[in-house]
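Lab channel / #folding
Pinned by the channel admin:
"Please post every new chain as: sequence first, then the structure tokens as a reply. Keep commentary short and put observations after the output so the thread stays searchable."

First post following the new format, from NK:
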Amino acid sequence: MAGLLGAGALAHAQVVTPASKSVVQQRRWQAALDAFAAEDRAHAPQPGGVLFVGSSSIRLWDTLEAQFQGVPVIKRGFGGSRLADCAERVPELVLPYKPRLVVLYAGDNDLAEGRSPREVVESLKAFVDAVHTSLPDTRIAYVSIKPSPLRAALMPQVRETNDLARAYLATDTDLAYVDVFSAMLDPAGQPRKDLFLPDALHLNAAGYSVWREALSAVVR
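Reply from TO:
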């Protein structure tokens, strides 16, 4: 194959290394992070609010502020993100806001990309450690990974991840596990299709109402 390509083609061939992959992943979220920074410059949130962080299920929650009226909500979801990305970006996503509570939803994208339940929970631990190193009094509530029809084949991994996350979060009174998984199952134990948009992955208004009810005990 090398002889067919020639020296010139080989010299210009793109080699993907772990370092270059990391740079690509960082650039992937830069537009979202820049938008958050611009919003903060225009309307700086007051410290002590409730910060919602995570993947597209947070980003697409258009009624979030309305459903938690009277609560100083800050929404910082970036679509397609993994729990690993949230952990790596705590300095930009969490620390500037000095929130009293962080509500975190992420993890199903990690599983969809092939990470194991234990690896996902290690990212959760890294997120908690990164927040509490700088903000030891900030509470963190982790929303369980949802059961979506599109990713029904991942249900065993979702259950295992949620069980591991629940056990870990029970070790600290400043941490909370918010179970949305159970209420999103039908009587046969499968994802409720009525809670999702036509893409069978993202929530509709009924789905977000389930989340609102589950979070009502911790978001105040």
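NK: The longest strand covers residues 50-54.
TO: also worth noting, Confidence is low (pLDDT under 50) at residues 1-22.
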